[in-house]
User: Which sequence fits this backbone?
C-alpha cells in the first residue's frame, strides 16, 4: 500500500494505491467523485473479523 500526502477532514483523500489479489492495483484516483468506504481489518483481530463478517451479511441480505 502506498499513500502520499497528509489528510485533513473535508480535504480530498490523498493518492492511494492498493494491491489486489489478482496482482493488479486499485488507485483511489480512479474513484474520484464517488463515495468510497475503505475497511482495513486483520484476520487475527477478532473484533475486526466479526465486523467484516457482519458487513458481508448485511450486504447480501
Assistant:
Amino acid at each position: 500500500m502506498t499513500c502520499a500526502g497528509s489528510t485533513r477532514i473535508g480535504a480530498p483523500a490523498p493518492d492511494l494505491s492498493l494491491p489486489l489479489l489478482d496482482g493488479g492495483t486499485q488507485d483511489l484516483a480512479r474513484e474520484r467523485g464517488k463515495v468510497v468506504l475503505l475497511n482495513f481489518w486483520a484476520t487475527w483481530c477478532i473484533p475486526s473479523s466479526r465486523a467484516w463478517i457482519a458487513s458481508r451479511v448485511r450486504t447480501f441480505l
